[in-house]
Amino acid sequence: MELAILNTSGKETGRKVDLNDAIFGIEPNDHAIYLDSKQKGTGTARAGNIRNPLFRGGGRVFGPKPRYYGFKLNKKVKQLARKSALSYKASTNNIIVLEDFSFESPKTKEIIEMGNNLNTVNKKSVFVLPEQNNNIYLSSRNVQGVEVIIASELSTYKIMRASTLILVESAVDVLQATFEN
């Protein structure tokens, strides 16, 4: 699968990037996506609830507890889920490849202008970078619906949650190297 590389103003650069069909063109596995994006516990504080024995009128100290419903997901299933999510985005044309860019200083205005040029305003979009870039992160931090993430930390949930996945050109190589294992 080939995608045109765009610059930050939304125009084509004339170059194309070849996306690996083993990652972006597989038959998506819905169940693997479901298993990987299933949420864990509620994340409440250590006190737990109002019936904690530390509180007045609380419950029994070593009372009966419900069983633990969490489970471990195998590495290959997680990888299949991420590949399936990327394939969904590729099949619906929701992946944009941008040429490598950087900001001199953190400017929120530049990220908003880039969103206008790429027609991703009022949509949830995820910028996938090859490595950490503080200026881009700080620029996007205050923009609603825009998230910046490193390619090696991309999760199934973040891929499926975003309406548009914006890959920086050098992040494509990092993604393909991550999934070759």
Report on this structure:
- It contains seven helices and six strands; from the N terminus they run ββαααβαβαβαβα.
- The chain has helices spanning about 20-25, 30-35, 75-90, 110-115, 135-140, 155-160, 170-180; strands at about 1-5, 10-20, 95-100, 125-130, 145-150, 165-170.
- The chain has a six-stranded mixed beta sheet.
- The radius of gyration is 21 Å and the shape is globular.
- The mean pLDDT is about 90.
Question: How would you summarize what this structure contains?
Answer:
By secondary structure, the protein is an alpha/beta fold. 35% of the residues lie in helices and 17% in strands.
Strand order of the largest sheet: 2-1-3-6-4-5
Distance between the termini: 20 Å
Rounded to the nearest angstrom, the radius of gyration is: 21 Å
| Overall helicity | 25-40%
Query: What share of the residues does DSSP label as strand, in percent?
Result: 15-25%
Q: What letter string, H or E per element, gives the SSE order?
A: EEHHHEHEHEHEH
Give the strand tally. Answer: 6
Pick out its properties:
single chain, 181 residues, alpha/beta, six-stranded mixed sheet, globular
Give the SSE layout:
Blueprint: E1 2-6, E2 12-18, H1 21-24, H2 30-37, H3 75-91, E3 95-98, H4 108-117, E4 125-129, H5 134-140, E5 146-150, H6 156-161, E6 164-168, H7 169-179
Parallel strand pairs: 1-3, 3-6, 4-5, 4-6
Antiparallel strand pairs: 1-2
